[in-house]
Amino acid sequence: MGLILSIESSCDDTGVGITRVEDRALLLHRKISQEGAHSKYGGVVPELASRLHATAFPKLIEECRPYFPELVGVAVTNRPGLAVTLQQGAIVAQALGIGLGVPIIPVDHLVAHIYSLFIEKEEVKPVLVLLVSGGHTKLLWFNGIGEICELSSTLDDSVGEAFDKVAKMLGAGYPGGPVVEELARKGGRDLGFPLPLNRRDRLDFSFSGLKNAVRLAIEKGEGAPADIAYSFQKRAIDHLLQKLEIAIQLTSPQFVGVVGGVSANKLLRERVGELGKRYRFTPLYPELKWCSDNGAMVGRAGIPLLERGDVVSPTQLKVYPRTSFPKCSFLRKNFPSKN
Ligand code: KG4
Ligand code: ZN
After folding, report:
1. Nearest atom within ligand 1 for CA of residue 136
2. Which helix (H) or strand (E) holds 127?
3. Is 160 in the pocket of ligand 1 (CB under 6 A)?
4. Is the minimum distance from the CB of 286 to ligand 1 under 6 angstroms?
5. pLDDT, tens digit, 9 for 90 and up, residues 144-195
6. Between 295 and which of 17, 25, 255, 331 could a Cys-Cys bridge form, CB atoms 3.0 to 4.6 Å apart?
7. 268 in ligand 1 pocket by Cβ < 6 Å?
8. 178 within ligand 1 shell (Cβ under 6 A)
9. pLDDT tens for residues 299-318?
10. Whose CA is nearest to atom 16 of ligand 1?
11. Non-local CB neighbours of 242 within 8 Å, separated by 6+ positions
């Protein structure tokens, strides 16, 4: 068959990969992270990110050059993400596609996160997915052969965004996830922030109330920063777990996957592991190096698309800031008024 060159630039990580179609082997993986450049702004600045992708890609693509003769396709994240950064990856993909005469495989970034569970793995399993990233928080059902439906999403902020904003409010640094997790380890007093959407007939997520509770606690000087980080992390994960548990009761999954940047969080992994023992499912997590955005997951997600012929010609490639999945039909029975 041949090799897929994959490209990721949906946010602030420039990633490429070379994946062999036959056996899913990852032959090359490179990533340039822009964290340092954005840290002084406390968040990603799209135009700066776009410029940094433009300078990073030539270096990374040069490393892929030895594999060019064997390429059978270029997989590229074309949705969802920042339009200006997606565009940088798309331009590179188009140039390669035209120059090498190979098709483009447009990949949904969220689907790529699901495939981060299956990098270098032949077999893909049906899995209930808790997708927790900087841009999204969703419960998805993945049937193992490429079809995905959505059980729920966040009504406002994503969980990763909440971690980032809490870190910023605490003056703790960027990116917020690892910083808050580290700070929380030094805390232990629970300030009792309210549990968002605490009802069993709702599967959605919401993090704006929790974020506000943190802001008020900081303004009133309630609790040391470590205790605030501890209490926020605990309640954010309580919220994720409450909704995940309802989804497990609905779907009785054999496998539950946690993917996206926040899946690196140790407490979250611990708590999903406990749920796994109670409900007898096998938890799946990406290797730590594949939790945040990377080109390897885009290449792995590209294989079934190429095999199905879901490709476009280089000139047809478009980027989209948003994506959507159909709602899971089995929800209508259980949540008739909401879905
Ligand atoms: O998936 P990702 O790399 O980018 C998007 O697709 O959005 O996720 C980045 C998010 C950031 O919000 C970051 O703060 C969060 O993942 N994150 C964490 C941890 N490591 C990264 N959140 C909580 N705990 C962590 N250890
Ligand atoms: Zn991501």
Report:
1. 7
2. strand 127-132
3. yes
4. no
5. 988 999 999 999 999 999 999 999 999 998 889 999 999 999 999 999 999 9
6. 17
7. no
8. yes
9. 999 999 999 999 999 999 99
10. 261
11. 195, 198
> Can you state the angle between helices 83-100 and 46-64, rounded to 10 degrees?
20
Find, among 294, 295, 298, 299, the residue nearest to 3 by Cα. Answer: 299
Helices (H), 101-151: 109-115
CA distance linking residue 87 with residue 121, whole number of Å = 30
Helix locations, the chain, DSSP H = 35-39, 46-64, 83-100, 109-115, 159-169, 176-186, 208-219, 225-251, 266-279, 295-308, 331-334
Between the CA of 333 and the centroid of ligand 2 the distance, in Å, is 31
Task: Give the residue among 3, 33, 156, 89 at the shortest CA–CA distance from 318.
Answer: 89
Between the alpha carbon of residue 31 and those of residues 63, 118, 198, the distances in Å are 11, 19, 39
Place of tokens 């490709």: 311
The tokens of 326 are what? Answer: 């159909």
Locus of tokens 């779907």: 251
**Closest of 30, 254, 23 to residue 119, by C-alpha:** 23
**How much distance in Å is there from the Cα of 11 to the middle of ligand 1?**
12
* Ligand nearest to the Cα of 237, by number: 1
